[in-house]
Amino acid sequence: MAVSVAIESPLQDDVTGLVEALDAYLVPLAPAEFHFGLNIEEMAGDDTTVFVARDDAGEAIGIGALKDAGLDAGVLTGEVKRMFTAPRVRGQRIGSVLLDAICARARAKGMKRLVLETGVGEGLAAAVRLYQNHGFTECGAVLDYPDSGYSRFFEKKLSA
Questions:
Q1: How far apart are CA 150 and CA 153, in angstroms?
Q2: E-assigned strands of 43-123?
Q3: 95 near 125, Cβ under 8 Å?
Q4: Which parts of the chain have pLDDT scores under 70?
Q5: Rounded distance, CA 79 to CA 102, Å?
Q6: Is residue 92 within 8 Å of 57, Cβ to Cβ?
Q7: pLDDT tens across 42-71, in order?
Q8: CB of 103 within 8 A of CB of 136?
């Protein structure tokens, strides 16, 4: 399957549908107060770049976002947000293509570090493998996230 990834607005029905599917998937994995996803309006903000993966028919099959986190510990930092692949295309490396695009954009923006927060448990094991396969290493709590038993944190140093 041919896949294209482009920066797009999240304010499209098919993209909104993916965000809603992601939210529904995450609901049973942690209490509501430990869900830290951006809503559609936040995703459309000037500090966030949304990437959409589309199949050869033009259908949105995956999303991911890069949020400008500003300076963190004196380092220009980006945050990976809202990674999701439609269930019917899982295992076809769509997440990998999206994450490559996010990393490239972060480097182009001069970011030296990427961070992310994800949940724990078997339901997110594939996501954790994706991040680790892309050079992310587990770390302590990042940005303003609480250090709880419901989150895992990862970082990746970026080179030019």
A1: 10
A2: 48-55, 60-72, 75-85, 113-119
A3: no
A4: 160
A5: 10
A6: no
A7: 999 999 999 999 999 999 999 999 999 987
A8: no
